[in-house]
Amino acid sequence: MGFLLTILLALLASVLGGLYLLGAFRWCRPGEPPLDRGPIPWLGHVLEFRRDTAKFLERMKRKHGDIFTVQLGGFYFTFLMDPLSFGTIVKEARTKLDFRKFAQNLVQKVFGYHSDHRFPQMSSNKHLMGDGLVVMTQAMMSNLQNLMLHSVGTGDNNHMPWKEDGLFNYSYNIVFRAGYLALFGNETPKSTESMEKAREVDRVESQELFLEFRKYDQLFPNLAYGVLPPAEKREAERLKRLFWNMLSVQKVKTKENISVWVRDQQQEREEHGMEDFMQDRYMFLLLWASQGNTGPAAFWLLFYLMKHPDAMRAVQGEVEEVLKETGQDVKHEGPFINLTQDMLQKTPILDSAVEETLRLTSAPVLTRAVLQDMSLKMADGNEYRIREGDRVALFPYTAVQMDPEVHPDPLTYKYDRFLTAEGGKKTDFYKGGKKIKYYNMPWGAGITMCPGRFFATNELKQFVFLMLTYFDFELKNPDEKIPDIDTKRWGFGSMHPTRDIQFRYRLRF
Questions:
Q1: DSSP 486-499
Q2: How far is CA 183 from CA 217, 265, 399, in A?
Q3: With bands split at pLDDT 50, 70 and 90, how would you rate the model's confidence at 120?
Q4: What is the pLDDT at residue 367?
Q5: Which has the closest alpha carbon to 399: 158, 18, 66, 109?
Q6: Are residues 66 and 502 in contact, defined by beta-carbon separation less than 8 angstroms?
Q7: Which of 426, 347, 372, 429 is nearest to 396 (CA)?
Q8: 3-class DSSP state for residue 384?
Q9: Would you say the C-alpha torsion 161, 166, 171, 176 has a positive or negative sign?
Q10: Which residues pair with 137 in a beta bridge?
Q11: The pLDDT of residue 15 is above 60
Q12: Quick one: signal sequence residues (predicted)?
């Protein structure tokens, strides 16, 4: 009897221990945010969260208010939904809230890259802003022209043939490939015996890379969550190995015009003794981080302009004025336009259209790991305790970008929403009568704000600039409805449409 009792007690202890680890006994302590563990031990709310992050967080806000803690796949996340209080997280010291721990786990799972070294951001900031940005912008323009203008059609300027494509596929394809070539370099004329053959190799190789990247990109959300079925998991591993090979350090070194940013990233890791195979994986991470969101954003930008003739006219007029000021005249068989960084800084209307597009379609989840017990003070004066080992998160899409008090009529595209009456950049937005600092957050905020945001913005503007300058284009169905967004991609940056939109285009000159 005593032996049986011992066994039963041991089993009970195991069950209770398992339930404890699954979070079944966690309760909200005094001073903590409302706790919602969810219907399933350990998993919590993760199934509903993955199904539609925006709807889930809206439901939690209605139930609990502007701050709450939920269990998601074994972790406890505290979401802060009041934009007036965002600064308490954005400005918190890394000793308490750190992005790197969360990011390191994600990139190891998704890209196979991990490193014990901490590399400074100075090289990224140096090359993705200022003079470095000028050089990269020029490289982007050269590659866009190679991809967009080399052979769209033949014929005189009055009878250029129309081509048809999906707008999402076309936009993503062109912007991704040009960005890849601008960063990772071009084929050398020495290896192909002529400049034109080298450009053709760039077109062919970048197309092959894009097709494989799209396969990986479609697997990415489930890969990040660790829920790929066996066959898709094998495919993801195949694609990872393919990219590690295609972007290997040794292959990149054979190119010319490699961006100084990529070269410096390689050099930093070499100096720290990182092996080539791990550097290859880092190159894949750089490719996704730099080009995984700009192509989808380019689609939305061009589509919204096509659906709003007033916006298209305003941006078209600004583009023509910028060209006129620089004395550039686009002619049949004439020289390509030289679109410089200085010219791109003279487009406040296009800037506003870009920002409005990102407000509507960019939806990252900004997450920090809690490194020690701490408190979060809200704008209303309330203070909440947060536990070490938890995570805190912001979802600006619902918290501010879709807030009708901050952005009236938030579901409507207003190309001039971020313009002042005088035509400058508008930064004054309010909630509850108080000015909001973080009124649009497609790039994140604070020390983790995307260092490549200026280059990415230039990519979008250059693409639209060339489309408006060189092409006639139109939707096949003028009454085309705006497609729904793919809810599986909430939290990963630029959203994808659930379907492509057919359009046609032709060279104007």
A1: -GGGTBSSB--BSS
A2: 19, 11, 34
A3: low
A4: 94
A5: 66
A6: no
A7: 429
A8: strand
A9: negative
A10: none
A11: no
A12: 1-17
Give the per-residue pLDDT at 162: 94
pTM here is 0.93
**Ramachandran angles phi, psi of 494, nearest 5°:** -70, 130
Q: Is 109 annotated as a binding residue?
A: yes
293 annotated to a ligand binding site? yes
Cα–Cα distance measured from residue 352 to residue 438, given in angstroms and rounded to the nearest whole number: 16
Domains and CATH numbers, the chain: 2-114+365-398 (3.30.43.20), 122-364+442-507 (1.10.630.10)
Whole-angstrom distance, CA of residue 367 vs CA of residue 224 = 14
Residue 28, annotated as binding a ligand: no
Does the annotation place 62 within a ligand binding site?
A: no
Alpha-carbon span 28 to 13, nearest angstrom: 23
Burial 12-47 (b: 16+ CB within 10 A, else e): eeeeeeeeeebbeeeeeeeebbebbbbeeebbbbbe
* pLDDT at position 501: 98
Structure tokens that stand for 269 in this block: 């890791």
- Which residues face 503 on adjacent strands? 165, 475
Mean pLDDT along residues 120-144: 83
Quick check: 23 pLDDT over 70? no
Q: How confident is the model at residue 12 (pLDDT cuts 50, 70, 90)?
A: very low
**For residues 252 and 296, what is the distance between their CA atoms, to the nearest angstrom?**
26
pLDDT digits (tens, 9 = 90+) for 420-431: 999 999 999 999
Q: What is the pLDDT of residue 131?
A: 84
Amino acid, single-letter form, for residue 362 = S
Query: Pairing between strand 67-72 and 75-80?
Result: antiparallel
Pair 76, 205: CB distance under 8 Å: no
The sign of the torsion formed by the CA atoms of 185, 190, 196, 200 equals negative
Residue 326: pLDDT over 80:
yes
b/e per residue 54-76 (b: at least 16 CB within 10 A): bebbbebbeebebbbbbbbbebb
Question: Which residues are bridge partners to 377 per DSSP?
Answer: 383
Q: Are residues 494 and 300 in contact, defined by beta-carbon separation less than 8 angstroms?
A: yes
Q: What does residue 128 show for φ and ψ, rounded to 5 degrees?
A: -100, 5
pLDDT mean over 21-43: 86
Task: Judge whether residue 73 has pLDDT over 80.
Answer: yes
Pair 156, 492: CB distance under 8 Å: no
Q: Taking Cα atoms as reference points, which of 261, 309, 305, 308 lies closest to residue 283?
A: 261
Could you please report the per-residue DSSP string of 191-227? HHSSHHHHHHHHHHHHHHHHHHHHHHHHHHHHHHHT-
Q: How much is the average pLDDT of 34-56?
A: 96
Is the confidence at residue 18, as pLDDT, over 50? no
**Please, what's the b/e burial string for 149-178 (b: 16 or more CB within 10 A of its CB; e: otherwise)?**
eeeeeeeeeeebeeeebbbbbbbbbbbbbb
Alpha-carbon dihedral sign for residues 201, 265, 456, 258: negative
Which contiguous run of DSSP H or E holds residue 314?
Answer: helix 309-325
pLDDT in tens, 253-273: 999 999 999 999 999 999 999
CA neighbor of 80 nearest in space, from 70, 66, 65: 66
